[in-house]
Specification:
By secondary structure, the protein is an alpha/beta fold. The protein has 13 helices and nine strands. Helix 6 crosses helix 13. The model has no long low-confidence stretch (mean pLDDT about 95). Bound molecules: phosphoric acid mono(formamide)ester.
């Protein structure tokens, strides 16, 4: 785990990765997020929690879910929120991310939610930040998307209970380029998941330690047998240009989840997808919008999880 993530007393200082995050801390965040579900969806007001604090969403890559849910989470905890738009900022004139951060810090921002295309970029910014500034990784390169990992675990707990040792979980698709998959894998291991299966074309599977301890296959039909949860990943279409898949039609045939295929999973299996979805490529409409889909529940849980993380980092 990043040394920068915990302070000398073992408390969260930044939230950069789920790798090595102690189990009790992970579970506490999930339990707090569960408590915050009503306020997260606008059912109660907690505006004193972060009153007087300012949170900036500093996104150097596009986002719908993560950015919006962090904004709502910060607002519902009473923080001021500053939305930084990289496309209209002085980064287009060559200003660095670090100088951008330091300038916003100088305006009194205490919390930064950062998305960046480069692996390790958020940890590097955390290292450059003032001691009382907190950074949250909202996705860096292919490394980590820790709040997505948390909200996926919260959604699984709500559907299947908190004993992950009983669960068979399957992750499908472009694992090689997926920061979501990496964060999910760290969390699933920490929570003691009974069996973690990973499936995708060889060209989209990582060849490093990412899949340690997982059952790995390229055969989607076989991988689905009896699983309790299927976590679909977005096919990053740009990978086609790199020649890593032959065509969208081939990908759909081999790795697309439709209702017929889903019958191979346990009858009460649930389906997750982090979004954005490529409908008709990795997932069919009938599954995405069907009774086993938890995809919009994941999105709602995103607000609660992000409230829990903001509260843990910024409540004075
Ligand atoms: N799941 C996710 O990170 O979605 P966005 O890219 O829309 O934030």
């Amino acid at each position: 785990m990043s040394d920068a993530q915990l302070d000398g007393e073992g408390r969260l200082r930044h939230f950069l990765t789920l790798e090595g995050l102690p189990r009790d801390m992970l579970v506490r965040l999930l339990e707090r997020a569960e408590q915050l579900r009503k306020p997260a969806l606008g059912g109660a007001v907690l505006r004193d929690t972060l009153a007087g604090q300012t949170v900036c969403t500093l996104f150097f890559e596009p986002s719908t879910r993560t950015r919006s849910s962090f904004q709502l989470a910060a607002q519902r905890l009473g923080a001021d929120i500053l939305n930084f738009d990289a496309s209209t900022s002085s980064t287009t004139k060559g200003e660095t991310a670090t100088d951008t951060l330091k300038n916003l810090e100088a305006m009194g921002v205490q919390g930064f939610v950062v998305r960046h295309k480069e692996d390790g970029a958020v940890a590097a910014l955390a290292a450059a930040a003032k001691p009382d500034t907190a950074l949250i990784n909202a996705g860096d390169g292919r490394s980590a998307h820790p709040t997505q990992g948390l909200l996926d675990m919260l959604t699984l707990r709500q559907a299947k209970g908190d004993d992950f040792s009983k669960l068979k979980v399957l992750i499908v698709g472009d694992v090689r380029h997926s920061r979501v998959a990496r964060s999910d894998l760290h969390a699933l291991r920490t929570l003691g998941t009974g069996e973690i299966r990973v499936c995708g074309p060889q060209s989209l599977l990582p060849d490093d330690a990412t899949l340690a301890g997982c059952t790995v296959t390229q055969d989607f039909d076989a991988a689905l047998a009896g699983v309790d949860a299927v976590m679909m990943l977005r096919l990053q279409r740009e990978r086609m240009e790199e020649g890593l898949i032959t065509s969208l039609a081939d990908y759909h045939r081999d790795y697309g989840l439709g209702t017929e295929r889903l019958r191979r999973a346990a009858p009460d299996a649930v389906v997750l997808h982090p979004g954005p979805m490529n409908r008709g490529v990795e997932i069919d409409d009938a599954v995405a919008d069907g009774p086993q889909s938890l995809i919009l529940q994941q999105v709602g849980n995103g607000v609660a999880v992000r409230m829990a993380v903001l509260e843990a980092l910024l409540r004075r």
